Amino acid sequence: MCQLINGRPDPFDKALLALVLISYIQGFVDGNKRTARYRE
């Protein structure tokens, strides 16, 4: 993930990728609007 983000030259691209990727991998599954994905 860091290599993907750091490989982009534009800071706006970096910010967008960081936002999307971090929200995708977060581990919260408590249903408090923090659920990104659920693994059983």
Describe this structure in a few short sentences.
By secondary structure, the chain is mostly helical. It has helices at residues 2-6, 11-25.
Report what the structure shows.
This protein is an all-alpha fold and 40 residues long.
List keywords for this structure.
40 residues; 2 helices; mainly alpha; elongated
Q: Give me the Rg, rounded.
A: 12 Å
- Number of continuous helical runs: 2
Structural class: mainly alpha
Q: In total, how many beta strands?
A: 0
Gap between N and C termini:
23 Å
Helix content: 40-55%
Unreliably modeled segments: none
Strand percentage lies at: under 5%
Q: What is the element string, with H for helices and E for strands?
A: HH
- Overall geometry comes to elongated
**Sheet with the most strands, sense and barrel status:** none
Mean pLDDT over all positions? 77
Blueprint of the fold:
Blueprint: H1 2-6, H2 11-25
